[in-house]
Amino acid sequence: MKAFIALVAREVRLAWTGGGLWLPVIFYLAVATLFPFVTGPDKALLARTGGGILWIAALLATLLPIERLILPDRQSGVLDQLALRGWSDELVATAKIAGQIVAFALPLLLATIVGSALIGLPEAQLGTLLLGLALALPALSGLSVMIAALTAGLSGASALGGLLLVPITIPLLIFGAGTLAEDPGNAMQLLAATSLAITALSPFAAGAALRAGRV
Amino acid sequence: MSSRQASLPSLHIDNVAVMRGNRMVLRGLSVTARAGDVIWIRGANGCGKSTLLRLVAGLLTVTSGKIHSEGRMALADENLALDANMTVEDALRFWADMDGASTEAREAALAAMDLQELAHIPVHFLSTGQRKRASIARVLASGADIWLMDEPYNGLDSASCARLDEAIIGRAAAGGIVLVAAHQPPSINVAISLSLDSQGVAI
Lengths: 215, 203
Prior knowledge:
heterodimer, A: 85% helix, elongated, B: alpha/beta, 3-stranded antiparallel sheet
């Protein structure tokens, strides 16, 4: 367990020092800042569409750290060293997802409070938005690690990562947007179920990709 | 067999062949190493030295044959596995945590590779030879029974080569097994000299 925590802590530290923390948050807040410039100062329109925009921004922010999640560790031999010590690839992926949740998901939730203020989201919607994102971000973290493992070392990995990630996140986006409706009950439950399934499965998919990529 | 004998590290490579892509890299390779053995693996570029080490490490699977080992392994190859932004000490501490190694073992490894003065410098500021020494220190600190070293002398000055020799002799004397893949012969006595031809066959 100590070794697992050490690996998660390393992921968080690398995110802090490698821009994996700040870049997505800055991107997320930049979208929230720019959106009112496009729509104009129509408060009703911003209130109606702002939550959805933050959902899309969160999804796209997930893409930003993908290149640093797996490839550097593969190139530097860290993944080999972990395998040599008997770590299963699935456990390595789980640690990376856990690290990503701490380093990416939690700061993004905090940024949502700022972002919703920038966009002029009604206070009543903020709680629902935070809850929805809190449910979805573990899944987005899992997907980002999975996509990073699948595309590590491929030319054009960033673009490919985007192409792979966006379609997979459509259910999260649909249910996430559904939570912003007047009665978010069913959508919230479906979002939670979808997120749970993706979060639970992503370490296995990422682990298989890590194994396949070992040469 | 006594329990002490049962805990001794050993390595049995039995008629191993491996295919990489559509090329047979190693074929019909058999080696047995016991506690205290140093094995020098030599051969031309591409003959399968690194592949053999990765096979023993379990990072690759054999196409045919068997590899059986007893004992914990550590690998030093061309990939340093040290985080560039971390100090040497922190980078080694991470792996020491992974290995359950003591602080004393980590400090002894730093001293063995003459890295104490560089301990607080980020890895990316080190020279090639210094990075290599840090990578070797990771192996030393691990306390592993079987060391797998791929071209460990590359980039090292003569003093560092001597320190590495000393560490290898010490590991073997303590009952470990050390596999060294290198073009140049180590300046220490080796129990087995395994020479591979260009087809990956032991000669």
